[in-house]
Specification:
The complex is a heterodimer of chains A (409) and B (170).
Chain A: H1 7-21, H2 26-63, H3 79-89, H4 100-117, H5 135-156, H6 160-191, H7 196-202, H8 208-211, H9 213-227, H10 238-241, H11 251-276, H12 298-320, H13 328-356, H14 362-396, H15 398-408
Helix pairs in contact in A: 1-2, 2-11, 3-11, 4-5, 4-11, 5-6, 6-9, 6-13, 9-11, 11-12, 13-14
Chain B: H1 3-24, H2 28-48, H3 52-75, H4 80-83, H5 93-112, H6 129-138, H7 144-165
Helix pairs in contact in B: 1-2, 2-3
The chains are: A mainly alpha (409), B mainly alpha (170).
Chain lengths: 409, 170
């Protein structure tokens, strides 16, 4: 085993050897090495987070036809450092009547729920925290802790806007968890496993995003809702409830929410890459050809993964800065009357076709899966169009509207 | 004592302590949050037993759904009523006595069970517990009937909830 084939384990073995060389017991040395590993992983995520502040601000600026930060350092690259210094030296206020302990735990828990996700994120085939056999459910569980953090922040602030924001956020997260859980079953069926690494390895020949583009779209929508970003940012709708659940937070406590949100968005970009675009691999068999074996090196895989995750993050930003905020009743209706039924149809379709097409050659399987998804998408759009036409007709014709209302009542 | 036993005792202390806080704290919302700590401790116990699936489901269902519903319900109630008034009933010693009796009975029973002293067998090599559970749930030789009956029950509960929540138009 050399450094280039397996860098993390190489360093870990070297460290363990060093520690046992100092006459530490083997068990203690292992625990110490694991602890160092956790700290390095968290630090990596947090340092990346600082970079994300710059990326986010630059990309927003481009979408809004501005230049963005460009004063401090080349291309404004040192701007995030200035932001952090500002956050840290701001006055730290705990409002009167706030529930102090819960108020102070909430931002930490919010950031923790995001960092927990990094435990299962495979950056390369040999660089990952842990390969859980229930990886996909773990994503949902970490999301549940995030919901809890927001509830705690909203309630303990002792502010009605904060509470309203928390209520909205929880309604949002609980309802969009349903299509997300259903759609997470599609990669599970296709890969035959719930382990994140297993799903990545299963896509070395064909991306699941091509086998089931509808599943990807539903996952994207419910991920954005889970993140609470526009168009689902009702929890911090500044024109209605000022800033929602983090209205009372100042300085670095607000900073934790902000950092958590940015890292969460990037992490979900990473999960999109892993579940639907092959993660660190997925070169359609290219890596097996002679002359392309360098694609298997962990550092190359890590670069590939980062690029794919960054693209997912960019799509999330793209949607955030192009869409107006959705109204709360529309949000719930969109989820329960459209997204959940569609997700169920896609799931049943995938489960049935996966068995029916199993005997076909590979291209037949891919074509069947892709074609069925396109068909479902087409039928959905036709149903929506018919529904829209009926609604418009009702609005144009007031007498008809009165009649239908009579019939309903 | 192995590292796992130390962890088990630590987690046990956390679970019991937070469970005690659930029933003694005055603020209802604090009780709900202590309950979250208790449930999380149980999830850690499942992890110690190598039952990853149960641990994750514990967090998703009990913390992600049930505890959050509790907190929701508590937040919609008024605060003054819960912070005054007695926390115990005059005849609290009867359930306390019964609880103590049941606990002693259970301890004696478990200690006298055959094989209580044995350590658990290691999982067979190459067994994926999630896959085994999944195929057991849909296999006609195992639990397909109870599983389907339970899902029909869930569906009935869902329909009932929708019916109860529907506002009558007339």
């Amino acid at each position: 085993m050399t450094f280039w084939n397996n860098p993390i384990n190489f360093i870990a073995d070297w460290l363990t050897g060093l520690l046992t060389g100092w006459h530490l017991p083997a068990a203690l040395a292992t625990i110490l090495v694991y602890l160092i590993g956790i700290i390095v992983l968290v630090l990596f995520a947090m340092v990346l987070d600082i970079g994300l502040v710059w990326v986010e601000r630059k990309v927003v600026a481009r979408f809004q036809d501005r230049l963005g930060p460009n004063r401090i350092g080349p291309f404004g690259l040192i701007q995030p450092v200035a932001d952090i210094i500002k956050m840290v030296i701001k006055e730290d206020i705990t409002p009167d009547g706030a529930d102090k302990v819960i108020y102070n735990i909430a931002p930490v828990l919010a950031a923790t729920s995001v960092i927990l996700l990094w435990a299962i994120l495979p950056l390369a085939s040999t660089i990952y925290g842990v390969d859980l056999n229930v990886g996909l459910l773990y994503i949902v569980a970490a999301g549940a802790l995030g919901t809890l953090a927001i509830i705690m922040a909203g309630w303990s602030s002792n502010n009605k806007y904060a509470l309203l924001g928390a209520f909205r956020m929880v309604a949002n997260m609980i309802s969009y968890e349903v299509p997300m859980v259903i759609i997470l079953l599609v990669p599970t069926i296709l890969a035959n496993t719930m382990s994140i690494r297993g799903i990545t390895e299963a896509q070395s020949g064909m991306w699941f995003g091509i086998l089931s583009p509808l599943a990807f779209i539903i996952f994207l929508i419910s991920a954005i809702a889970e993140l609470g970003r526009a168009p689902f940012d009702l929890s911090e709708a500044e024109s209605e409830i000022v800033a929602g659940f983090h209205i009372e937070y100042t300085g670095m406590k607000f900073g934790w929410f902000y950092a958590g949100e940015l890292l969460h968005a990037f992490t979900f970009g990473g999960f999109m890459a892993i579940l639907f675009f092959g993660g660190y691999g997925g070169f359609f068999g290219l890596e097996k050809l002679p002359g392309f074996t360098w694609l298997n090196f962990p550092l190359v895989q890590m670069l590939v993964f980062m690029a794919k995750a960054m693209f997912g993050y960019w799509v999330i930003m793209w949607i955030k800065y192009s869409m107006p905020r959705i109204r709360i009743d529309h949000m719930l209706a969109f989820n329960w009357k459209f997204l959940v039924p569609l997700a169920l149809v896609v799931l049943v379709n995938t489960a049935v076709l996966n068995k029916v097409l199993a005997g076909l050659p590979n291209w037949g399987y891919v074509l069947g899966m892709f074609g069925s998804n396109i068909l479902i998408g087409f039928v959905t759009i036709e149903i929506l169009r018919a529904f829209g036409r009926r609604q418009r007709k009702l609005e144009e014709n007031p007498t008809l509207q009165a009649q239908t209302q009579e019939q309903v009542s | 004592m192995s590292a796992e036993q130390i962890l088990f005792i630590l987690v046990g202390v956390v679970i019991l302590g937070s469970a005690l806080m659930v029933v003694t704290t005055r603020k209802l919302i604090h009780a709900a949050l202590w309950l979250v700590v208790t449930l999380f401790g149980v999830a850690v116990l499942f992890t110690l037993l190598r039952a990853n699936f149960l641990a994750v489901i514990q967090v998703v269902v009990y913390i992600g759904a049930i505890a959050i519903l509790f907190i929701f319900a508590v937040m919609l109630t008024r605060r003054e009523q819960m912070e005054k008034g007695r926390q115990t009933r005059p005849n609290w010693w009867i359930p306390a006595l019964l609880g103590a009796l049941i606990l002693t009975g259970l301890v004696v029973l478990i200690l006298n069970l055959p094989g209580a002293e044995r350590t658990a067998l290691a999982l067979p090599e190459g067994l994926d517990p999630v896959r085994a559970l999944g195929s057991a749930l849909v296999s006609p030789k195992a639990y397909v009937l109870p599983f389907e009956v339970a899902s029909v029950l869930m569906l009935a509960a869902l329909v009932g909830a929708v019916y109860v929540a529907t506002v009558d138009k007339k």
